[in-house]
Amino acid sequence: MSKRIGILVGSLRKESFNKKIAKNLVEILDKKYSYEFIEIGDLPLYNEDIDQGNPPESYANFRNTLSSFDAFLFFTPEYNRSIPAVLKNALDVGSRPYGKSQWDGRPAAIVSVSPGAISAFGANHHLRQCLTFLNMPCLQQPEMYIGNVTKILDENGNINSDGTNELCKKFVQAFENWIEKF
Ligand code: FNR
């Protein structure tokens, strides 16, 4: 059966650069894979008090959705040199109840995107730290830092830089090889 890839984007913004880059990348995934963008904006902030016994429907649905994927591809902006709260919240919700984390053992990769020159390096590595703890084997090379993103997107949201397109192809190929190992 073809592997299913869950796409998580750490920005809720309609015109998010991360979403635009994500759309470019999923286009070049081999057609043998299926993928889905996973909604994370409607999850209440994680609170253990409401997660005893009967979890809120939104938490239960989210965990159920995560359980249907073989691998995850994360796109993250950088907020104050870390990952946006909405993405951390999704990681936290998916990681509970204790001992039943939906992330456990599933391969992953990270793309960080910023209009700034540092390419959301801080967010990329904070996210990597969380995924390490969550026991998600995370692709290490090639690293995917996309900086100065406004300069490489055309008015339709397509990447118009040959160098970046080449890197995207290499990254997607490496990610596909990576998820086949698990
Ligand atoms: C930012 N931004 C930002 N950029 C960056 O490169 N490093 C940073 O630490 C921050 N910090 C930060 C904090 C907050 C609260 C906001 C709202 C923004 C700018 C950020 O990269 C920019 O808004 C991107 O466009 C966000 O990504 P999306 O929404 O376009 O995907």
Automatic annotation (TrEMBL):
Residues 4-149 form the NADPH-dependent FMN reductase-like domain. InterPro entries: Flavoprotein-like_sf (IPR029039), FMN_Rdtase-like_dom (IPR005025), NAD(P)H-dep_reductase (IPR050712). PANTHER family: CHROMATE REDUCTASE, NAD(P)H-DEPENDENT FMN REDUCTASE LOT6. This is NAD(P)H-dependent oxidoreductase. It comes from Sphingobacterium litopenaei. The lineage of its organism: Bacteria, Pseudomonadati, Bacteroidota, Sphingobacteriia, Sphingobacteriales.
